[in-house]
From TrEMBL, chain A:
Its main location: membrane. Keywords: Membrane, Notch signaling pathway, Transmembrane, Transmembrane helix. The keyword Glycoprotein does not apply. This is Gamma-secretase subunit APH-1. It is found in: Membrane. Pfam families: Aph-1. It comes from Coilia grayii. InterPro entries: Aph-1 (IPR009294). Signal peptide: none annotated. It is a multi-pass membrane protein. The chain crosses the membrane at residues 6-25, 32-55, 67-86, 117-135, 155-179, 186-206, 218-239. The keyword Membrane applies.
UniProtKB/TrEMBL annotation, chain B:
GO terms for cellular component: Golgi cisterna membrane. Keywords: Membrane, Notch signaling pathway, Transmembrane, Transmembrane helix. This is Gamma-secretase subunit PEN-2. It is a multi-pass membrane protein. It comes from the Eukaryota. Belongs to the PEN-2 family. The chain crosses the membrane at residues 18-38, 59-81. GO terms for biological process: Notch signaling pathway. Its main location: Golgi. Signal peptide: none annotated. It is found in: Golgi apparatus, Golgi stack membrane. Pfam families: PEN-2. PANTHER family: GAMMA-SECRETASE SUBUNIT PEN-2.
From TrEMBL, chain C:
One of its GO terms (biological process) is Notch signaling pathway. Coiled coil: none annotated. It is a single-pass type I membrane protein. Pfam families: Ncstrn_small (PF18266), Nicastrin (PF05450). This is Nicastrin. It is found in: Membrane. It comes from Coilia grayii. One of its GO terms (cellular component) is plasma membrane. Residues 1-23 form the signal peptide. Residues 39-212 form the Nicastrin small lobe domain. Belongs to the nicastrin family. The lineage of its organism: Eukaryota, Metazoa, Chordata, Craniata, Vertebrata.
Length: 253, 101, 701
């Protein structure tokens, strides 16, 4: 019966990413390549930060709980900064590659704009980080047991799934905003992205108060979504235009 | 192999080979024959060798059906009565499931 | 980037994967593993399978505490959460409740909390007539005595050990972990005022999937097929068995097997094993330990006198293994004797004195059981038996023990001696504390432990003080041991005048009882065993379930301990060094054909002074002849096998309600469909939304 939980959580955590992938990425090989390379860059950053973490834990005194707690906080911050460094590195590489791609491309339709690249790269980061935060939990959601024998919330699985969903989308939005900041050399934008990423990650230190960290993350997500919308070229007028068109469609028919 | 690029005589010879091969207790050859040559036999516009291909495909299909019937019956009987047969079914089994009669 | 760098990357990635795999904290949040559990496993004989098993992926059920009869009703009929995992105290673990559960489909499994002492009214999961079909009495030998027709030996036996349960049954000790389970149940599974409790509920999962089915004949056939035809053969069951320990008082040359001219041997026999409902727990205090401790003490008492005034006949001390399972050890020794595969043959056996259950005497009474059929049929046997009885009675008179004979038509109790009688009319006596039915109220059950035998100590003693504290049980058993030793000496033709020199030492008996019932890792046992044999001694009571050999060369701990002790008691220290002790050939006066040699730690103190003991003690295989003869459906020999399994495991956790699970799935589906719809819509209108005013088309097409 716990199969229901497994599929439910999998759909929540990866449903949006899946939808974005099949409707906006899958048809264009170039976007697929950028997505996978983005995922790979995120993996590299995780590899490095986990290496540092591994050494730090092995070298430290395992009995000292306050030290371990400190190390954990340090590990989170270090990992976030490293991810952002890799995001920047990926931006530089894509920038370089884009000129080359444009040169060899014989078909104009396969060229890709910086905003599009930003979106695809961000989604790549998001999918990979989502997969890593969710995969262990998903495998345990197959049961037969559920969380709670030590007094934890029984909504652990579903909150984790929603957290993963938010993280995946946040990475996408951060990607869009970050690349725009780089493009226009607005360093404060990059600063804001890094800060928000730090805030979101540090909220997980509130665990095991899972439901406590969920609302602030979603607030941040919505704000980021709006920002990313505008930085990707959206505007209020375009929405109203769209709505009015639909209205006129309805009226004319 | 793409059948489109093969001359008709060769199609016929191929179909015959598969048909005859099936008699060596190789029903999968008949399955391949049916699937592979179905279009040639029944969909394509008529050509000289088509009637013969048609016969081979039909007979292959018949043989295949026979095999399916025999195997399904045997598997059903064996799986149901394995436990009751005891010693005989142990000697008939290639792998004996653990903890099952 | 050379190959070195690539290698480094791979190593790092590998370490990192291991970290992820081992540190799965989610699993730790869900499950509490129960480590102190003992399962009931599947055993098979010629015709049946018995014991318990789970499905291959374990049985899971909501825990329900069985405390009253209304709980039983909830579990078996009315409760909404079937199948149930039943948590019960040992008081409910009886045949009527267990058989009702056996026939119900609402049971996922049972966990029994076993206390230290048993119910007052007694409890025995064995059957009423132990080893019913493999004793001597049958249609052709005393037909009226067959199948316990005359005497029901184990009146309290409810036969649970011989039932085939389709669900797992585990036993739990009454400790912290059981407390965790009880807390989980009372926190989650107790409805307020008797109402149905709300989810999440506390549940348990038990794994004990057994590989063998139907009978020994089936599983051994499958073993053979697998070994002959399969590429990776998988054994499904193993014959029960271990080793018999035996020692003639005077050395007999082991190079020639079979009949020995001029050799007449009195066999002093006892059993080395017991069993319970659960796997590998069998403390067998009264059923097993009292008997062999008595015989060990008797051998020690005899040693000096036997050397100074050797009796004309030889004495063979025999400790039979696997007797609880249709006389594996004794039937094997008799089989070997018949086939000239043993030092002596049955003709060399003058008589048999067997020690049965002797630890629970009522007052000073001991009973001498004899076989009415052979006494009636054969006058010479009867004369010898009479002589033996007279000897023993006279010895007992000097010891303030009163010996009595039960009714002359009563058969022998279940005993190894019956296996000798099956092959040859041999005079013999079985010494026991019961007249007809066993005094033992916990025959072959977990409660037959030190406390039941009254081997208890004042609470303020350290382990080493307990070791030498002489209990009343030890004194009583020392008396019996003296009786046995003197009777053996007389029976071997020794002089009456020497009898006063033969006395068993209560100090030794008490240390033996401590070692075999409380913990074997004590200074006394350490001093008598090889210090390099690290796995021999343990800080708990040894278990006497015969079991199956883990590898071809493994020998049960208790067997090896008895071997060491017997060697020390009847053997002599030598001056051989450690390497010569292993192979003393060529040394003057030493012979591997006559003796065996064991290296022991020595010195009953802190400083070891190891030396080599020369004795006549040997071990021979106690595997039923049925497996030698490949007669897996034998009616003559023991055919017991133990199934193999891959996993024995128990854990508790919470299960979520069906509604929450469906809610999760529903929300998941909603999120998926919504995002598919929204993405499709936005991607088709992307060129409108993300205006080209800003030079590019934005996130989507």
């Amino acid at each position: 019966m716990t199969l229901a939980v497994f599929f439910g959580c999998a759909f929540i955590a990866f449903g949006p990413a899946f939808a974005l992938f099949i409707f906006t990425i899958a048809k264009d090989p170039l976007r697929v390549i950028i997505l996978i390379a983005g995922a790979f860059f995120w993996l590299l950053s995780l590899l490095l930060s986990s290496l540092v973490w591994f050494i730090a834990v092995k070298a430290s005194n395992a009995e000292d709980t306050s030290l371990q707690r400190g190390l954990l906080i340090f590990g989170v911050i270090f990992s976030v900064l490293l991810q952002e460094v890799f995001r920047y590195a990926y931006y530089r590489i894509l920038r370089k590659a884009n000129e080359g791609l444009a040169a060899i491309s014989d078909d104009d339709s396969s060229t890709i704009s910086v905003q599009q690249m930003a979106y695809v790269a961000g989604l790549g980061f998001g999918i990979m980080s989502g997969a890593f935060s969710m995969i262990n939990i998903l495998s345990d959601s197959l049961g037969p047991g559920t969380v709670g024998i030590f007094g934890d919330s029984q909504y652990y699985f579903i909150t984790s799934a929603f957290m993963t969903l938010a993280l995946t989308l946040l990475h996408t939005f951060w990607g869009v905003v970050f690349f725009e900041g780089c493009e226009k050399s607005r360093w404060w934008v990059i600063g804001v992205v890094v800060t928000l990423h730090l805030v979101v990650s540090c909220l997980s230190l509130l665990n095991p108060l899972y439901s406590g960290s969920l609302p602030p993350v979603y607030v941040i997500m919505v704000l980021m979504a709006i920002w990313a919308f505008f930085s990707a070229g959206g505007s209020l007028s375009s929405i109203t235009q769209l709505c009015s068109r639909r209205m006129s469609d309805v009226n004319s028919s | 192999m793409n059948l489109e690029r093969v001359p008709n005589e060769e199609k016929l010879s191929l179909c015959r080979k598969y048909y005859l091969g099936g008699f060596a207790f190789l029903p999968f050859l008949w399955l391949v024959n049916v699937v592979w040559f179905f279009k040639e036999a029944f969909v394509k516009p008529a050509y000289d060798e088509q009637p013969q291909i048609k016969t081979y495909v039909k007979r292959s299909a018949l043989g295949l059906l026979f095999w399916i019937a025999v195997l399904t019956t045997w598997i059903t009987i064996f799986q149901h009565l394995r436990g009751q047969w005891g010693e005989v079914s142990d000697y008939l089994s290639f792998t004996i499931p653990l903890g099952v009669e | 980037m050379g190959p070195g760098f690539a290698k480094w990357i791979i190593t790092v990635a590998f370490c990192w994967l291991i970290q992820i795999a081992s540190g799965n904290s989610v699993e730790q949040k869900i499950y509490v593993e129960l480590n102190n559990t003992v399962p009931c496993v599947r055993l098979l004989n010629a015709t049946h399978q018995m014991g318990c098993q789970s499905s291959i992926s374990g049985n899971t059920g909501v825990l329900h505490m069985l405390e009253t009869d209304s709980d039983l009703d909830i579990i078996l009929r009315t409760g909404p959460h079937a199948p149930y995992m039943v948590l019960m105290d040992a008081g409910f673990f009886n045949s009527s409740i267990m058989l009702r559960m056996k026939n119900s489909t609402r049971i996922a499994g049972v966990a029994v909390v076993i206390p230290n002492s048993g119910p007052l009214e007694g409890f025995s999961p064995h059957n009423t007539c132990p080893n019913q079909h493999t004793g001597v009495y049958s249609d052709s030998y005393g037909p009226r005595l067959a199948d316990c027709n005359g005497t029901i030996w184990n009146r309290l036996g409810n036969g649970l050990s011989f039932e085939d349960f389709k669900f797992p049954i585990f036993s739990l000790k009454d400790d912290n972990q059981t407390g965790v389970i009880r807390k989980c149940v009372s926190d989650h599974n107790m409805g307020v005022n008797g109402s149905t409790p709300a989810f999440p509920l506390c549940a348990m999962q038990l794994f004990s999937h057994m590989h063998a089915v139907t009978s020994t004949a089936t599983c051994m056939r499958r073993n053979d097929i697998q070994n002959n035809y399969s590429l990776n053969p998988e054994t499904v069951c193993d014959p029960l068995g271990d080793y018999n320990v035996w020692a003639p008082l005077r050395p007999i040359n082991s190079t020639e097997k079979g009949h020995k001219a001029n050799e007449s041997v009195v066999v002093a026999a006892t059993r080395l094993d017991g069993r319970t409902f659960f796997w590998d727990i069998a403390t067998g205090a009264e059923g097993t330990v009292a008997g062999f401790v008595t015989l060990l003490a008797a051998s020690q008492a005899l040693k000096l006198t036997a050397r100074q005034a050797p009796p004309p006949r030889n004495i063979l001390f025999a400790f039979f293994q696997g007797e609880a399972f249709d006389y594996i050890g004794s039937s094997r020794m008799v089989y070997d004797m018949e086939n000239n595969n043993f030092l002596i043959d049955l003709e060399n056996v003058h008589s048999v004195l067997e020690i049965g259950q002797v630890g629970l005497r009522r007052g000073s009474e001991l009973w001498l059981h004899t076989d009415p059929v052979s006494r009636r049929n054969d006058t010479s046997v009867n004369t010898e038996v009479e002589k033996l009885l007279k000897n023993m009675t006279s010895v007992a008179a000097a010891l303030s023990l009163s010996l009595a004979e039960p009714n002359a038509t009563q058969p022998l109790p279940p005993s190894s001696f019956q296996r000798f009688l099956r092959s040859r009319q041999i005079p013999g006596v079985v010494l026991a504390d019961h007249q007809s039915a066993f005094n033992n109220r916990y025959y072959e059950s977990v409660y037959d432990n030190a406390a039941y035998l009254n081997v208890t100590y004042p609470s303020d003693l350290t382990p080493e003080e307990q070791l030498v504290f002489v209990t009343d049980t030890a004194k009583a058993l020392a008396e019996v041991a003296t009786l046995v030793a003197r009777s053996l000496y007389l029976q071997a033709g020794g002089e009456d005048s020497q009898l006063d020199n033969i006395t068993a030492d209560p100090n030794i008996v008490t240390q033996l009882l401590y070692g075999f019932l409380i913990q074997s890792n004590n200074s006394y046992f350490r001093s008598l065993t090889n210090p390099e044999d690290k796995s021999l001694l343990e800080s708990q009571a040894p278990q006497y379930y015969v079991g199956v050999p883990i590898t071809a060369n493994t020998i049960k701990r208790s067997t090896r301990m008895v071997q060491y002790l017997l060697a020390n008691y009847i053997g002599n220290p030598t001056s051989l060094n450690q390497s010569k002790c292993q192979d003393p050939s060529g040394m003057p006066g030493e012979s591997k054909e006559l003796y065996s040699y064991l290296w022991v730690r020595g010195a009953n103190g802190s400083e070891p002074s190891p030396f080599c003991v020369r004795s006549t003690v040997r071990r021979t295989h106690a595997i039923s002849p049925a497996f030698e003869l490949k007669q897996y459906d034998s009616q003559t020999y023991s055919t017991w096998t133990e199934s193999r399994w891959k996993l024995i495991r128990a854990r508790i956790f919470l299960v979520a309600s069906h509604e929450l699970e469906m809610l999760t799935l529903g929300v998941g589906l909603a999120v998926l469909l919504l995002s598919l719809f929204v993405t499709y819509f936005v991607s088709t209108k992307a060129d409108l939304i993300f205006a080209p005013a800003q030079e590019s088309t934005g996130t989507a097409y």
